[in-house]
Amino acid sequence: MQSAIDMMPAKLPAAGMKKRRSTSWITLAAALIALIALLPLAFIVWVAIQTGWDTVVALILRPRVGELLVNTVLLVAVTVPIAIVLSVALAWLTERSDLPGNRWWSWLSVAPLAIPAFVHSYAWISFVPGLHGLWAGVLVSVIAYFPFLYLPIAAALRRLDPALEDAAAALGLDPWRVFARVVLPQLRLAVCGGSLLVGLHLLAEYGLYVFIRFDTFTTAIVDQFQSTFNGPAANMLAAVLVVCCLFLLALEVMVRGEERYARVGSGAARQQQRARLGRATLPCLLLPAGVALLSLGVPFVTVGRWLLAGGTDVWRWDEIGLALGQTLFLAIAGAVLATLAAMPMAWISIRAPGPLQRLLESCNYIVGALPGVVIALALVTITVRVALPLYQTLFTILFGYALMFLPRALISLRASIAQAPVELERAASSLGRSPVKALWSTTIRLSAPGAAAGMAMVALGITNELTATQMLAPNGTRTLAMAFWSYSGEIDYASAAPYALIMVAMSLPMTWWLYVQSKRMAGR
């Protein structure tokens, strides 16, 4: 008995050494991935240094850059406030009022996410051929992107404790003042987060604005690259676009503030009583019905009209099958690669939190805020100058997808790993398994559903991605988005319609999953 007891202290330090060694290797892998994720941002800075200060100033201070900056600022400054007002109104009607069919209107307010933004624009330009310019861009942008605001605002409204509103009403405040002074301040986080998503999408979008002939930094970068392959000029436009993205990130942090939004103390939140609309029911129904008609009716009617006009001839099954197969392959391969790359960072964010972890994690989120065209331009220039054999290869495009959609996989993995008890890893290690085998047999298996959800979100993004795919794809690649863009660019809208329909059909299940998850977060 004594010999057995004496042996135990000798084994525990060895197990601890293995654990620390495993953690150090995972941290090293996470650090390497974080550094790689910053590659596009670092490359733009390096190109600016190599180009020279005088040339950089000349390229940035051109009148054309000023025009693009004015267009971009106006687009964001007008679109985001309209989307906020629309989303708050829809969320209140569907979550806080007795609007008839509120559950259906709630789902219909999320469903536009299933339609790629460039398909929205294709539908509207087919419906109204003269739709061009800033206000056309604002209209289509609000219709395409307001669900990014509606989802978090509706989820926040479901979670609010009505006791605060009851207390404000008891003090003599009318319903409008209660909403303005009690409810709206508690929606700040949701509004700031959703506005940031919408703003970043506005900066990154390409196809939507090409259809309506509205120039932004993204359209100018792609045009510069495709027409003249002018690396310095395109990279300086990309640098200005990156500054705009970082400015949005900083603005969101300042507006969000550091206030607490959770209740402290005993008690339990009760269910909010829905407001009675009464005579205002019919007028209030016009808002969700009108939004659904504009965001869903116009695209589906337009696609259906072009399908009927084209008949069976537009269903070129050999081309469609090839595009569908290539899209699925790139989506699955890119999703697997992004998920694998996110695993080390997700693991240390839960198992070894600290200043280094927060720094590494922020690197991954910064690259997620960069437009796809910036990442693609950086990879194109790097492969052309340094690694020409990798130019327009499968490796490069999958690498680009992994960089672009790494945050999507990271968020899902982090949430699922947090639900896997660390004690199971320790128990597996105490039974003699190596740290890697213990990690695989416990945490990795338990986090499989979250990994699958993250892969689905990445695959959805890859399916609808256009600009980076055009710039990085190997010769002969023709995804659903590329085929749609090719036919629509030739004004052959009938031939483009089947590809639009298939992309929407592939995106709808993922959109439904996002809607269900938002309900679960609020305990519904």
From TrEMBL:
Gene3D superfamilies: MetI-like. It is a multi-pass membrane protein. The keyword Cell membrane applies. It is found in: Cell inner membrane; Cell membrane. PROSITE patterns: ABC_TM1. It comes from the Bacteria. Its main location: membrane. Signal peptide: none annotated. InterPro entries: MetI-like, MetI-like_sf. CDD domains: TM_PBP2. Residues 69-255, 324-514 form the ABC transmembrane type-1 domain. Belongs to the binding-protein-dependent transport system permease family. This is Iron ABC transporter permease. The lineage of its organism: Bacteria, Pseudomonadati, Pseudomonadota, Alphaproteobacteria, Hyphomicrobiales.
